[in-house]
Amino acid sequence: MNKFVIFVSSALLVLFRIASAKVILYPYLMPGIHSGLDKESVSIFWLTDEDDIDAKTEFRTDDSKTSTLASISKKNVQIDGKSYYLFQALLDNLGFDENYYYTVTTRYGIIRQQTFRTRTKSNSFKFVVWGCSGEDTRPQIQIAKQIESLNANCIIHLGDFSYPKIGSGDANGGKLEDVIKRGIKPIDGEVESDNRSVLLSKCLTYLVYGNKEVNDGRGFNQGLNSLATFWLTNHPVNGPLVPKNYPNKLSQSDYTIFQNLVGRDKDGDLFERKTNYSFDVGNIHFTVIDGNVWQNPDDSNLRSWIRQDITNSRATWKIVVMHQPPFSPFISLAKDAKSIFSTSTFDSLIEDEGRSRRYVPLFEECGVDIVFTAHVHAYERVQPIKGVEYISSGAGGAHLHMNLITDQKGRVFSLMAEAALRGMRSLIGSNYNRYSYTIVNVIDRVIELEQYDSSGVLIDSHRIEKK
To answer: I want to staple 323 with a disulfide (CB 3.0 to 4.6 A). Which of 3, 159, 192, 312 is the partner?
Structure first.
């Protein structure tokens, strides 16, 4: 009888643990640490509310019957009285341009089975650009589902990956639950469904740090919740040490926890080096620049790194990606009609454009071909300036700025704004009323860009050819 009671009690305990165990973030892909095309690796992250010594990740190529066991690391963090476990599986020594199949298993069973494709070395491939997505909206999920179907080699997310919940008492995010629920969860569903995409589990995404990711430069004003994106993501860290101007309100012990979460390498803490980095895909060299208020665009180390990073590359195409645009007709209109656009949102856009413009001489000097940005919640393509194309793709799912004008000033004002924008000679491709994303087709020395709305309707196309 006693053995039976013990057996039943143990069974009930296991059932209780299964019921209570919670996968907070299902496994999703992140780029590896390699920036060049000499080595390839990928990381898989997932977040739970309990430890799991039985967790494992296996991977293999599509045509292989033998799986490799990935190495797994984990970190525990206590936030607001809750315990979280962040798992990271390293898939190393991967081939280029290959399809891989992976399985993530916990003590309670399989939580993810998915395929992905590694970076290409080919001169002909496809990638996708989008930004300002993270409000858990229907358009955000519609766009993610469209991107899923494209078989793109990689995705560039131009920043503002996650927004705070409206009415949360803080206009500029930084809360862990918001990063999860509004940024990652909608495009990292447990399974594909009408209101969830599984985009992050099957496509490599390189992240640009927007103002929401850095808490508008206000640092750790919400404790370890703040800057959560820094420890929930991965990518090459090959940029310079650039001091960030932010208030650090954390205790030394909490700041140490944050440093451990973000990680270290041979050159020290990754935190202040993580927002500027570069990487290669095919015949393109991408340079990611932090355009946020907490970074000084005139910093000599930063400018020297940008110059060397771009000019030392032998890639056919040099592309810069950053969050804040140096040229935006929408922001120009805001400057000219401040009585109409006099809100904190538009005032900050004007300031941000001026800061980003200080990088422009470097772009021209270094032979940059295209600068992709977001920040303005719209699509804008301006006339090339001294040979550089400037394209803003920031209508990825968050509230459209033209709608914000309608809400605050009325439809008449938004119609006036649209008419004024149409009259700007600098603007040759735009849409301010539809959510959208950019498909980039690379065919050796030709780049073809297509802008699609969240319903899959083409709203602009453009061809760039290297002479």
So the answer is: 159
pLDDT digits (tens, 9 = 90+) for 317-375: 999 999 999 999 888 877 766 655 556 667 788 889 999 999 999 999 999 999 999 99
Q: Chain-centre distance of CA 408, in angstroms? A: 29
CB 211 within 8 A of CB 159: yes
What the block records as the tokens of 253 is 């012990």
How many structural domains is the chain composed of?
2
Domain holding 65, by residue range, is: 22-119
Separation of CA 49 from chain center: 24
Q: Return the C-alpha torsion angle 221, 222, 227, 228, nearest 10.
A: 170
DSSP tag of 135: S
Please state, in angstroms and rounded to a whole number, the distance separating the CA atoms of residues 454 and 287: 27
DSSP symbols for 213-235: TTGGGT-STTGGGTTGGGTS---
Query: Is 156 in the same domain as 78?
Result: no
> For residues 204 and 45, what is the distance between their CA atoms, to the nearest angstrom?
12
What gap in Å lies between CA 18 and CA 22, rounded to an integer?
A: 8
- Measured CA to CA, the distance from residue 85 to residue 257 in angstroms comes to 13
Q: What is the CATH number of the domain that holds 85?
A: 2.60.40.380
CA–CA dist 314, 341 (Å, integer): 44
| Separation between Cα atoms, residue 62 and residue 65, nearest integer Å | 8
Q: Output the pTM of the full model.
A: 0.91
Of 88, 119, 150, the domain-final residue: 119
